Amino acid sequence: MPAYTVHEPPPRDGDDPAAATDRFVFVRDKFSMWVFLFAPLWMVRRRLWLVLLLYIVAMLALQAALWALGVPGGARFAVVLLVNLLIGFEAATLRRWTLTRRRWISHGVVVADDEESAERRFFDAWMARDARPLAPAYAPPAGAPAPYRTAADPPDVIGLFPEPQRRP
User: Fold this and answer.
1) What is the pTM of this model?
2) CB 29 within 8 A of CB 1
């Protein structure tokens, strides 16, 4: 099943918190063929300006280095394809990084079949969380033994012998 990360925009002055839920962004973690084929255009469309600048600088430096080393054109093209393949796999990570830089708040991961189901599942959990007080996830029962060992406890023995023994 696809996984989506949920991001909330930074609060605006005088903005109602309930109205901000319309601006939440769900980023799907997947390989994107369109990003692989048209990486710079995708970066412009998503307004990832710093990512675009780093991409252009890195590609120019890489191509200049390969040209200076006398690498044939086919190999340079293969390097461009491999870099774009990497960007296709990491497109969601680049978008999340940009949202984090813009001070968007990450609310976690939702697993769902599509974006609409992810939104429904996330907001259902969000409303349920706000409706009841939070309880600790795990509380040991009263009188339970301590989860740590004391110095008086015998050491564990690894092997077939019941007690640690000295070799003759």
Assistant:
1) 0.69
2) no
